[in-house]
UniProtKB/TrEMBL annotation:
InterPro entries: GH, GH13_cat_dom, Glyco_hydro_b, O16G_dom_2. Keywords: Hydrolase, Maltose metabolism. Residues 17-440 form the Glycosyl hydrolase family 13 catalytic domain. SMART domains: Aamy (SM00642). It comes from Aspergillus lucknowensis. GO terms for molecular function: hydrolase activity. Belongs to the glycosyl hydrolase 13 family. This is Glycoside hydrolase superfamily. The keyword Acyltransferase does not apply.
Length: 579
């Protein structure tokens, strides 16, 4: 059997991501909670994963589902308490699972005590902890924000504060004021009272939210005008990867090193390999790895993410995106990640596979499992991905969408179009395809009402998908040909073939093919060939003929596909070299 190189634990690890609000509700209030997670640790361990990452469970008024933190040392009461967290951390460790938390320190909630103090007066001791600027005035004497930056959730990135008559910066919601990282007291407090507080409780690392946005262009210049009809402009180049960002991350790493904690940074808007390596090259002592957006950004609108058509991407673009992220570890001292879902993304089967029929849904979920499990880097699996959960149905109305990213957009379209029903329909269609809400639907545990997420009598904070009667853990656990059984098999195979699947070098084949994604993975003279049909028609696997490739696994079953040169719709296969 192949053996994996002796390496840091996180390289050959599979990390299961949990969204606390939507995973499991233990007390029937409709909101997932820490006890719910605790009660499913055996299930999580049964998947064959090594660690869990929990999305923010800190105290928060929940304008952005806990990414707006009002107290880093408290747990959001509906989720539980700090003691419950300690219990969960210890229970994970007792099962041999590691646990990482979400570190959200680009901004706080506007209800955090630091911000309340900061906004109280211009001379407050914490005034400089956030980013305050005076107004500008136009030729008519109208008050304007300091620059034209657009917030990531729409509207100006600046909010006027009546008390002290200045604007504060918020790259995300109005309720998420950005911390001023230039202030050394802010950095020290983040290290000590946020990071060390939880590291001392035994957490094994952090997923670092918006890791490249702490350092902004200090001149706060206007962004180039790309949409002249709009008062605000996309400004990523002025607040991502700013001049002091690497200094700040190196400082954080000094704290993390003491605990041997792992980090995975969320690295938006950084599509070049050089840009990524600046953060993940081991010699730089910054982050262990990052989530690049190459794949999950496919098909999104450039001005507004929802301003796009359905499936506005072609397979060769995905290939280039994968190649870019795979190359990060080819001949470098850097490391990469493998993921296509998280709490900010629609479901991968709906976006990249097909949810049109139950057959296509099943087939594409399994094909995507082969895809993910054969790519190099640390693999992340998002709750529900392992059972092939899909986007909310097309029939669902706008009232089922709760996420601020979706609702802000819908409201903007309503205002700008004067309530035009066609425009609103278009917006809803885009949301049905790309909204963050889809990943936040309750986890589908069983065919019971509320999908076994909440007791049948409860009212979950988001409605359970209508298809939970078909797609759920219980049904799939008892079925050896289910998506779940296939994922488990693939996760085992990934470990068995770690030298090739986790550490191997990726070699893209047949780049221009718009239906089949094929590639080799190579390591020390060994190689495998992976062929994935991204279409709903049979496709030929060109490379295999007459070359001595032996079928290792097929997503439709080895018998069904042996001897057939054609891939079935949405089928995936792995061949091993026998030459
Ligand atoms: O996301 C930051 C981010 O840049 C995007 O993923 C963003 O959510 C998306 O483009 C909007 O369409 C992180 C968190 O993962 C996200 O949940 C938070 O809302 C955000 O930071 C603010 O903390
Ligand atoms: Ca609950």
């Amino acid at each position: 059997m192949a053996s994996a190189p002796a390496e840091k634990w996180w390289k050959n690890s599979i990390i299961y991501q949990i969204y606390p609000a939507s995973f499991k509700d233990s007390n029937g209030d409709g909101i997932g909670d820490l006890n719910g997670i605790l009660s499913e640790l055996d299930y999580i361990a049964s998947l064959g994963v090594d660690a869990i990452w929990i999305c923010p469970m800190y105290d928060s008024p929940q304008y952005d589902m806990g990414y707006d933190i009002s107290d880093y040392q408290k747990v959001y009461a509906p989720y539980g308490t700090v003691e419950d967290m300690q219990t969960l951390i210890d229970a994970c460790h007792a099962k041999g699972l590691r646990i990482i938390l979400d570190l959200v320190v680009n901004h706080t909630s506007h209800e955090h005590a630091w911000f309340k103090e900061s906004r109280s007066s211009k001379t407050s001791a914490k005034r400089d902890w956030y980013i305050w600027r005076p107004a500008k005035y136009d030729a008519n004497g109208k008050r304007c924000p300091p620059n034209n930056w657009r917030a990531i959730f729409g509207g100006s990135a600046w909010e006027w504060d009546e008390t002290t008559e200045e604007y504060y910066l918020h790259l995300f919601c109005v309720e998420q004021p950005d911390l001023n990282w230039e202030n050394p007291d802010v950095r020290k407090t983040v290290h000590k009272d946020v990071m060390e507080f939880w590291l001392n409780k035994g957490v094994d690392g952090f997923r670092v939210d918006t890791v490249n946005m702490y350092s902004k262009d200090p001149a706060y210049p206007d962004a180039p005008v790309l949409s002249p009809e709009s008062e605000t402009q996309v400004a990523f180049s002025l607040f991502c990867n700013g001049p002091r960002i690497h200094e700040y991350i190196r400082e954080m790493n000094e704290v993390l090193e003491k605990y041997d904690a792992m980090t995975v940074g969320e690295l938006a808007q950084t599509p070049t390999m050089e840009g990524v390596l600046r953060y993940v090259s081991a010699a730089k002592k910054e982050l262990n790895m990052v989530f690049s957006f190459d794949v999950v950004d496919l098909g999104m609108g450039k001005d507004y993410k929802f301003l796009t058509g359905k499936r506005n991407w072609a397979l060769p673009e995905m290939k280039t995106a994968i190649q870019r992220t795979q190359n990060i570890l080819n001949g470098t001292d850097g490391w990469t990640t493998v993921f296509m879902e998280n709490h900010d993304q629609a479901r991968s089967v709906s976006r990249f596979g097909s949810d049109k029929t139950p057959e296509a849904r099943d087939a594409s979920a399994k094909m995507l499992a082969i895809f993910q499990c054969t790519l190099s880097g640390t693999q992340f699996v998002y709750q529900g991905q392992e059972i092939g959960m899909v986007n909310a149905p097309e029939e669902w109305g706008v009232e089922e969408y709760k996420d601020v990213d979706s609702t802000n957009y819908y409201h903007m379209v309503r205002e700008m179009s004067n309530n035009d029903p066609d425009k609103l329909k278009e917006a809803l269609q885009a949301m049905q395809h790309l909204a963050r809400d889809h990943s936040r639907l309750p986890m589908q545990w069983s065919a019971e009402p509320n999908a076994g997420f909440s007791p049948p009598s409860a009212k979950p904070w988001m409605r359970a998908h209508d298809n939970h009667t078909e797609i759920n853990v219980q049904a799939q656990n008892d079925n050896s040909s289910s998506v779940l059984s296939f994922w488990k098999k693939m996760l085992r195979l990934r470990k068995e073939y770690a030298d090739l699947f986790v550490f191997g070098i990726f070699e893209l084949l047949d780049e221009q093919n718009g239906e089949v994604f094929s590639y080799m993975k190579k390591s020390g003279g060994k190689s495998v060939l992976v062929a994935l049909n991204f279409s709903d028609t049979p496709q030929k696997v060109e490379q295999v003929e007459g070359r001595g490739w032996e079928l290792l696994i097929s997503s439709v079953g080895e018998e069904a596909s042996a001897g057939d040169a054609n891939l079935q719709p949405w089928e995936g296969r792995i061949y091993e070299a026998s030459f």
